[in-house]
Amino acid sequence: MLMKNEQVMLIIILFLLQNSKGFQVTCDTQFSDLKHSITYVLCPADCWRQYSNLCGDRIYSRGPICLAAMQDQWIDGGGGPVVVYRNPGKRNNRYSGANRNAVKSESCSADGDFYSFEMTCSTQGDSSTLVTQVNCPAYCRGEAVYGSGTYSDKSSVCRAAVHAGALPDKGGIVIFYTTLGRSSYNGSISNGIESKSDSASKGAFAFTNINECANNACKHGSTCVGVIAEYFCVCDPRYYGKYCEKEFTHCWNDNLTGKFVMKSGVEVVCNKGWLVFQRRFDGSVDFQVYWSDYRNGFGSLNGEFWWGLEKLHIATKSFQCNQCRLRVELKDIDNETAYAEYSQFRVGPESSYYQVCVGGQYTGTAGDSINTEIFYHNSNGMRFSTRDRDNDYSLFIHCADFSRREGGWWINSCSLASPNGAWNTYPGCSKQGFPCRAWWQTYKNSIRLIGTELKFRCDI
Question: Is residue 422 part of a domain?
């Protein structure tokens, strides 16, 4: 159990670790330049161009550490982060060379320590970071351990972890933190491991149980994922929160973003508290489809999709029209964006042909293509039309029919808004003189759109 002052120190060092970027090295940095048994380094790019003088294969006795990391395939020519482990070596150790990953090393014999990029049983607890996570191999035996609870930094980390009860003998992930050395260390027998007594050391380390998953912190059958000094829960899509403790009800609860599942089993996509019911960005999904498609929904929630009119009705029927808002976000062929937002939105049942209530106060940069001054283009109060259902008020034209390629929409006597229109110009449309694409007429005089997202949120 940590004392209060130790708990405060642990919080501080966790913060420092999470903001650490690793020890900056050069292509020439040698193993002998590192001062710790476990060192986090950040290798630059193009070290393969250096003269190597590298000796070893997977375990190394000399040479530039970043070049060795590249040969051992922990990084590529672009550099990157890597962990270097120093291990006590034997006298006159023999190291074999190799030619791998565009890096050649030589064979040699050497005395003293060697280094590797994987944790070994003999790696000691002198780390360059205040809190360190390592993956210990199985059945570490014969390595020296000094102390009990708090261990001298010349102790084997993995063997000390078994002694402390922080690791099974079969190995695995363990987390330890460094602390000030003590004037002496008392040995003991614990978990089948005998540690030794020792005199003073400059540094020491101890183990901490910060695995929230081990404490059943993740709720509702969620999966726990561990990273260095931190754990997080991967939630079932019916739940959210740090520990998956909250049940999903609406996107607008806590301004959620992501894919979730409602109590009814219906999947939804949330974007900063809005429920997305239409999204297009690459033209991979055909929106020139039929009534049943628009009623039930089509596409993939991981890509382009229309959520479904019936789902829209069920999601909004418990609210008054002025309790929900509609937001339309657009991206054009110039890669510029705009939006239109309305203070009223609600979709009726299929018996009303999914009649829409939309409008109220308009705000935005795209212009108002829904409640326009041209009354016969207004969408408010209109029924939904598709290529096989002509529910608009035009006497002469089926505004959503196949030949015009405008897709399904709430249409009066045709419309100034066509976010479900054809992705590219449809052959034959030019002869009719009508725009045959996704467009929003009040935005840049109906410039072609290459991205749309329609979403709503309601006040509880």
Answer: yes
